[in-house]
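Below is how a single chain appears once it has passed through the pipeline. First comes the sequence as given, then the structure the pipeline wrote out for it. We keep one example in the README because the format questions we get most often are answered faster by looking than by reading.
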Amino acid sequence: SEGILNLANEEDKQMDIKVNVTPYEKEDSKVKAYANVVIGDCFAVNGIKVMEGSKGLFLSYPNYKSGDEYKNICNPTTAEMRTKIETAVMEQYNEKTQALTQSQNVQRGI
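Resulting structure:
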């Protein structure tokens, strides 16, 4: 059975999510960026990938291969937290890729 330790207090109810996204530019790669996330200034998840899939961009959490399948090392356990992380990562990804595109256009004189 799982042990549950309740450490919640009023301050914990609003957890900040800090994100650092690094765009990854390699031709023919489905990986579009890497992201590191810090949740509530107390838990870091490094190595989240922004991936290009058939239905658009999605997040791939750190994982390892076991036999023929991949297993997550860590991932959100609630839809609410998954949405918060996804929104924060994708907002910064969009900001950084737009800034990168603008910078490249300036260098090209466009």
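The first helix runs from residue 79 to 108.

See the next section for the split statistics.
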